[in-house]
Amino acid sequence: xxxxxxxxxxxxxxxxxxxxxxxxxxxxxxxxxxxxxxxxxxxxxxxxxxxxxxxxxxxxxxxxxxxxxxxxxxxxxxxxxxxxxxxxxxxxxxxxxxxxxxxxxxxxxxxxxxxxxxxxxxxxxxxxxxxxxxxxxxxxxxxxxxxxxxxxxxxxxxxxxxxxxxxxxxxxxxxxxxxxxxxxxxxxxxxxxxxxxxxxxxxxxxxxxxxxxxxxxxxxxxxxxxxxxxxxxxxxxxxxxxxxxxxxxxxxxxxxxxxxxxxxxxxxxxxxxxxxxxxxxxxxxxxxxxxxxxxxxxxxxxxxxxxxxxxxxxxxxxxxxxxxxxxxxxxxxxxxxxxxxxxxxxxxxxxxxxxxxxxxxxxxxxxxxxxxxxxxxxxxxxxxxxxxxxxxxxxxxxxxxxxxxxxxxxxxxxxxxxxxxxxxxxxxxxxxxxxxxx
Length: 438
Fold this sequence. Notes:
By secondary structure, this protein is an alpha+beta fold. The protein has helices spanning 2-10, 13-26, 68-112, 117-131, 219-261, 270-285, 289-300, 311-314, 322-328, 331-339, 349-353, 375-390, 401-410, 418-429, and strands at residues 30-34, 39-42, 51-55, 58-65, 136-142, 149-155, 171-173, 191-199, 202-211. The strands form two sheets. It has a five-stranded antiparallel beta sheet. It has a four-stranded antiparallel beta sheet with strand order 2-1-4-3.
């Protein structure tokens, strides 16, 4: 790179013009060669020994002239120009590195705030491993109940070193075998950086990155490492708060659903079973996290519209008349109306409203067909029907499990989505469905 730099510098028009003017004013011939002996300016070699051109301690070439004293002026000029060019290049490289670092940090911050705690930890490890030298990276969080750090994600192996570095400050240890804090840790760590995970003045845990071979981590390594850890800590704190609020919300939803369910003495545990079946189907299908969340809530609230059905119909011990069944069939629309007033639940309306639609278009309330029916509703339809078929009613005994499964197969492609039925049966065969609440 140094040879190429010298040639590039001396081929610039302004530099050539300056050298030409200087050599003419001195009345001498000058030849400049790079380290490979290639002439990059002038011609000939002169009778005097060459004088070296240097920049940043590197010899970049030689200047030859008949007058050594005059040649020294040329060397001084070229040295100055070469040094300035190398400084400019170093500054440009540093600027580019900083830009790349800032771009990466922006991308990291933007993405890390969309994950849950374990995903954040995995994402942090990935970026740490890509940006600094590390054979092992470990993320530990303090257990709220025990107060002890627990590994939630790691690359390499858990060497346990993070447990002795909960001092609350970031550190570099470049000679672990001789550090007293590391003597009782059974590990092969040679060098490490560590940083506490702090958010809102609370220490959430500690992150360590280490090497098995000797390595000197720098202050820049630690600074960049701490920046990543700090951003991940705030994201984790937000994710934990979100999870806590979400769990409280789901519990409230379950309580509401169970309160409504108690109006119907013949469907005890129905809501919980439909939810369990639905989630088992979703896991088999591998649906997105967004749809999984919608399904979780919609399956719990799929019968919320029954609050609008009269008790004498809902609690009737004998088979319903056509008129009574028509009243029952209003519950999906009633559910839609109720949920439309709750902003946070509007996205589950398709699952609640359409769980009695049929693939062949003969369902209710809208007579939707095939893919017109929301996937969440198609999943709930299978889970709901299976539970209805296998549950006892005063006017009939529930079907045996195998008979109910056969009925799902028989109605696949007409009443039910074939893909959903196959996923239910696969989950059933894999023992992913629990019947404990039956």
